[in-house]
Amino acid sequence: MSKDAQQRTDTHTCQRSERTADSMAGTSDIELHFGVDSMRASSALLRAASPVFDGMLGAGMAEAQQRVIKVEVASKTDFELFYRLLFPASRKGKVGKKNVDALLAISDYYQVDFLKEACEKKLLRLPATVDRLIQAHKHGLKRQYQRCLSALALESKAEDMARIRHFSADILLDLVVRGQEVRTQNLQILRLEITSLQRTAVDSMKPVPSDLGPASIWNLTFAKDRDRGQHFDDATVRDLSKFKRELSQKLSHVLQLLR
């Protein structure tokens, strides 16, 4: 099948899916109540998308007999967007920065997994904050939760820790553990860097055979640096005072991490 033919087939399939969904949604046989507001909806579409709605509208349930469902987790405006996104191959809305919080809460409550995953993908592109960490824990967003833990491990302030502790001791524990893991990794990296600097200083003080001329001495030092992945020139390698300054900076960094 040619590329153009495949595109026409995909377009036809998408349009057919939308017509099927439109036909399904056109049978608005139940009423959703949002306090003072209400809207009509298709029970078939809701049941197909959500196991929660499927259970509520099953045989013998009051909602199925009365054809009325109370929605307490969302406003009518937010639910209308959620409802539009239930259409197969929906082009009637999208998850964005302004609606992701509401859509996540609704999709999590009604167990609409594909929409919940879309919300997490959007959140993964937004800044990691304490609120996002708590939100990820509340709604079971594993990737977002781990990302926020790593981002906040060494940056959380006292007031942030207090908020987290008030919401969940489990989150606080996870954050403290992640912070310790990050500190340990940083210390290991610093140790390797300090060891490398020490070896550079020792090598620079080793005697060089007298039969080597100035150019050969420079090339020998350059080869050693290149093998270690260093980019110091000849003067820098022999400058012990600079080495001491670099070592002092590394040690100061270590002390800051240990505070």
Automatic annotation (TrEMBL):
It comes from Symbiodinium natans. CDD domains: BTB_POZ_ZBTB_KLHL-like. SMART domains: BTB. It comes from the Eukaryota. Residues 1-22 are annotated as: Disordered. PROSITE patterns: BTB. Residues 28-87 form the BTB domain. Gene3D superfamilies: Potassium Channel Kv1.1, Chain A (3.30.710.10). Transmembrane segments: none annotated. Residues 1-21 have a biased composition (Basic and acidic residues). This is Bath-42 protein. It holds the Pfam family BTB.
